[in-house]
Amino acid sequence: MGRSAKRQTVTGILRITRGRFRKLVLEDAEGRRFPIAPREGLPAFPGDRVKAELSTPSWGFRSRRRGPPVMEASLVAVIERGCTTLLGHYRASRQRAWVVPKDKDLLPPIEVEQRLGLAEGTLVAVDLGRNPGLVTGTIAASWEDPDAPASVIEQLVYERDLPRAFPAAVLAEAARFPDRVPKEESALRRDLRGLEVIVIDPFDAKDHDDAVSWEPGAGGGGRLGVPIADVSWYVRPGRALDAEARARGVSCYLTDRVLPMLPPRLSADLCSLMEGQDRLALSVFLDLDRDGGVLRGEIQETVVRPTVSLSYEDAWKVMQDSRSRHPQAKGLHALQAISAKLRERRFADGSLDFNFPETKVILGPDGEPAEIRQRLGDPSHWLVEECMIAANKWTGEMLALAGRGIWRVHEPPAMEDVAELEEFLKGMGVKLRRGAASRDLHPKDFQAVLERFKGEREEYVVHRKVLQALRLAVYSAENLGHFGLAIKTYTHFTSPIRRYADLLVHRMLRPSGVDGRYTVRALGDLASQISALERRAQEGEWACTKLMVMRYLMKHLGETFEGTVSRVERYGAFVELDGIGQGGLVAREELGTEHFNVSRDGLSMRGGRSGHTFRVGQRVKVIVARVDAARGFLDLALAE
């Protein structure tokens, strides 16, 4: 008789692992993952919340020498359908039709309606609905040319269950607002249309939440103004607009499109702070001393008329020229000086500064990636960033005084993650001033490590490793502080066009108090929901950028790139390509026939015969050998 183990029940979410060898696993609330046992008849898909029984299969005992036996999950029931859309290929017979999922070895076929004229094997998207007892679906989209640039991004939207078209009721509600700010509403607000208000955004921004102003005062200080689009005046609780915004949580920015939280009528027009246009704003004013210290603050319902709208590039040109004759040069130079003081104070408190460039894919006329741009922040970015952080910090403090709110929290890292980071840093010859053993971590401990490698060849690798040791920032109805910013009380106030959390904060802080009454329990539920939706959008954005970068590299097969070794494993070395924002694998087979040994600290690999060594942080030249854009794999070969 075979060996068996007592079964225990567990609930969790079904996931498909990433990597070259994908498999279906159950992830429980503690983050543990269990492989799924072979199934018969139970329709379950990635994202579904399921109940399962754990047991040890006969093969699981083989690993006892290397640790505890492997536990396998046998699915018992689907509790809640989390997966609502799947991609697959259409199949039909005379009597019925079905769709075979792309992951056909992991997922069951889905019954669908027959479609006349739809060719056998056509790639389709299937809406499953949320009934956990059914494995039928409705065809939502199909693609005759599934490899066209726009098609692959549309497939990503369906595959990751990202928001699509707005319901008719939402569009109808947005259409009912007048084209101009109502005079009766303007009369109730502080009129700032005579104040110099500057909007600075990316050159291709689709919405404009925020602006800045500066009024000089005595002794080198002054009044910093941060007008923010008053979305809460338009989007009221209990209405269709609010329900849809809450369901979306955030806007999602893909390479060729925006999936906005609000209909374009609001997000790109009525709410957007645009040059020369009257707009309703909820404005924070902070009186600062000459060193950037906050003396006092207030929040006001205002009407503004932005003086100018600049791209970061145009703003930076003006800021670099002390003799610039640009009409807003004086204001920009004053804002640059005070934002530098704010930044200096923030880093003195221990705020972390990760030096990661932003990767932007530029599309050609055919929709294919034509160029990859990587951009590091400059003082024009820092100007906006510091003003927004100052406003978010002050509004977070106001929520704390009121005793309830939604905060942006970033808890200190878990001790096991700190211990792993310490082991890595030990191999780099560096120590955390206070490590896992002290249990009294401060952001300055991590800040010192980041500073130590600034400008060094290992900078990217070390910064990435430190970031991986930190927790994710999330929303919470409990004020837990923001470790990465070294701020005890912090919220998100400055982007209500694209973040539902900011809209909630506006409702709670607006002087009139309209629509701002939420229970702590309701805020906790909303915080959890918004955090999950934010993560969904972020992962969709990252996946889209990676997909487009891969398609770009497909046009550069055989070409040589420079890069940095970012990780070594027994099966090869990973190299991050310069100016691309993407890494690939130089497989062990590409290094010749000799055996390579990975060092104990995991930072290098050495050839047993030649002694040739690859070390984390090492600069190398590599050739693009193979690209699998659909699966996200990049294979590299050494160029020398």
Which structural class is indicated by helix and strand composition?
A: alpha+beta
Report low-confidence residues grouped into runs of 5 or more: 1-5, 61-65
Shape field: globular
Number of helices: 14
Strand order of the largest sheet: 3-2-1-4-5
Q: In what range is the share of β-strand residues?
A: 25-35%
Largest sheet: 5 strands, antiparallel
Estimated radius of gyration: 27 Å
Percent range of helical residues = 25-40%
Count of beta strands: 31
Overall mean pLDDT stands at 91
Distance between the termini: 57 Å
Features:
single chain; 640 residues; alpha+beta; 5-stranded antiparallel beta sheet; globular; disordered N terminus
